[in-house]
């Protein structure tokens, strides 16, 4: 199993940033301080929800059936994720 990219500090739980990237082909290393993309700042559950949303072509009705939840429950989950992304976006500007 591939290790999951950590997004929170194991010591203080603050958000982590990327500080180094490396090319496995030529061994070039790029250093700096980069924020994680919004998608990677979401929980695994939220990421899976977005993936399912994409795979169902944005059909919340179909997602509700697949998840065994009501349409309003799925709609509320999507609204929660949208709000979280808006907050992440406003905090990174």
From TrEMBL:
InterPro entries noted in UniProt: DUF2089, DUF2089_Zn_ribbon, RNA_pol_sigma_r3/r4-like
Start and end residues of each DUF2089 domain: 9-36, 42-86
One family name in Pfam for this protein: DUF2089
SUPFAM superfamilies: Sigma3 and sigma4 domains of RNA polymerase sigma factors
Protein name as it appears in the record: DUF2089 domain-containing protein
Organism of derivation: Flavobacterium microcysteis
């Amino acid at each position: 199993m591939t290790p999951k990219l950590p997004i929170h500090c194991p010591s203080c739980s603050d958000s982590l940033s990327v500080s180094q990237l490396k090319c496995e082909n030529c061994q070039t290393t790029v250093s700096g301080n980069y924020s994680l993309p919004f998608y990677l700042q979401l929980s695994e559950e939220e990421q899976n929800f977005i993936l399912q949303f994409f795979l169902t072509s944005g059909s919340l009705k179909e997602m509700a059936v697949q998840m065994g939840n009501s349409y309003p429950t799925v709609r509320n989950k999507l609204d929660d994720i949208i709000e979280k992304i808006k907050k992440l976006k406003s905090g990174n500007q």
